[in-house]
Amino acid sequence: MAQSYEDRILRVLRYIHDNPAGDLSLDRLADVAAMSRFHWHRVFRALTGETCGQSVRRIRLHRAAVALAHSDASIEEIAATVGYPSRHSFSRAFTAAYGDAPGAFRAKGLHLPPLALRDPKELLMHNVTLRDEPARHLVTVPHRGPYAEIGRAFEHFSALANSRNLWPQLGPVLGVYLDAPGEVPEDQLRSYAGAEYRGDGTPEGLEPFALPGGKAAVLTFKGPYAGLAAAYDSLFGGWLPQSGETPADQPCYEIYLNDPRATAPEELLTEIVLPLR
After folding, report:
1. Binned average pLDDT, 10 residues per bin, the chain of 277 residues
2. Which domains does the chain have, with CATH numbers?
3. How far apart are CA 2 and CA 42, in angstroms?
């Protein structure tokens, strides 16, 4: 029975991610889940910690924030692709969630211009510290595709953790990123969404991933996840060349210090961890 409810949740979350501009009303999502509207609302909230409306709004606006930061599409086009019928309704919802109107958010420059056009000071705008990272055993959901879309894997992971009451056995939530954007086609980028696991074995439906630990450079980024690409540029293009350090042959990973479901985007804290030799 529990597996049936997991399947319903995962099916609905996939549907939201695949159809951001479509009909994501409670009635439609209840139909996707094959449950009555009244009972589906309660099941979804119990197993995800959010109402359907809150999840839909958060997923749509995150996708919009990424588009504002990393594309030249007009605000009207972005509004339409995430299911808002007008610039006005989109702007109102985006401003309420992100604290800035879409145009002001874009003007903050969360995506840096090409290296040759940058002021070198832009690449040194984040503090980086050195520390010894522990070895970690993770349980994860794999994701293949643009890193900005790993949210769907995190939704999957969170739904499984909630439905199976895994959180007491989980430590920090992490994302692991195996490939270098720009060197690997976007649709082939490999990443993992999960958390440190302190239980035995590997829960069904999740994949283990081992991080060896050791010396690392850690950049702490405060702000919406749409700004992480610029923070990576700061780490690799600003700090690393001047540090005298050499990266280890291990993937970068991110440690998420607060919950995006309960934290304003501008208050999100993310540690970007670069393993070093």
Report:
1. 77 94 94 88 86 93 93 94 95 94 86 47 72 97 95 94 94 95 89 96 94 96 90 87 92 96 93 96
2. 2-107 (1.10.10.60), 128-275 (3.20.80.10)
3. 15
**99, 137 Cβ separation under 8 angstroms:** no
Rounded-to-integer distance, Cα 75 and Cα 73, Å = 7
State the Cα–Cα distance between residues 273 and 254, nearest whole angstrom.
6
Q: Give CA–CA dist 156/229, Å, rounded.
A: 23
Q: Which amino acid appears at position 147 of this protein?
A: Y
CB neighbours of residue 183 within 10 Å: 7
Structure tokens of 165? Answer: 């009451």
Burial of 99 from C-beta contacts in 10 A (0-12 / 13-18 / 19+): middle
Rounded to 5 degrees, φ, ψ at 256 are: -95, 115
The verdict on pTM exceeding 0.90 is no
Task: Name the residue with tokens 């969630």.
Answer: 97
> With contact defined as beta carbons under 8 Å apart, do 270 and 256 qualify?
yes
Residue 200 and residue 147 in contact, taking contact as beta carbons nearer than 8 Å: no
Record the tokens describing residue 89, joined without a space.
Answer: 């309704």
Token reading at 83: 């299911």
Structure tokens at 55: 């999840």
Provide the token pair at 239.
């700090």
Q: What is the pLDDT of residue 6?
A: 86
